[in-house]
Sequence to fold (174 residues):
Amino acid sequence: MEMNPVQEKKRVNIGLFLLIAVLATVVVGSFTIKTISSKPDIKVTKQKITRAERDGFKAKVDQMVARYTVRREGDMPIVHPPPGSDIYLLARNYDWGKFILELERGKTYRLHLASLDLRHAIVVYELKLMNRIKPDEFKIIEFSPAKAGRFRIICGEWCGIGHAGMMGTILVTE
Ligand code: CUA
Fold:
């Protein structure tokens, strides 16, 4: 049976459509795989925390700020702990501590994370740092900032009226 030109054109168009659909699937698929496989450079350990330890945790934050404040930005101390050291962040409604953390690119830190009240989640998109924190646990996250710059710490877990404003800053120097 002979095909008229219109039918033939239709068939070609369907072929082209299928080809594009397959290509799009492959491209989107490989992007997805890439996103999943490029895991952050972090290692997380989790421990239960007692009330006393949680109170002690706040003292550690204060010690760190007192010891490693190198300069100020307005009334915010900029805290620059030595590479390889322990750093402490205490999440609470609604901040990550009243200081700016300054780290060095490519150096490894042990980030101790605890919550004073509810569930929060630390999120620093650019550093691929994302982790949830509950009030009865603390976490030690070994990580190494891969990028230099000024990055925002946001909260990734709904924690109340001030959730969206629960922000902090991390500076990463070269
Ligand atoms: Cu803390 Cu949302």
In short: Helices lie at 5-37, 51-68. Residues 32-38 have pLDDT under 50 and may be disordered.
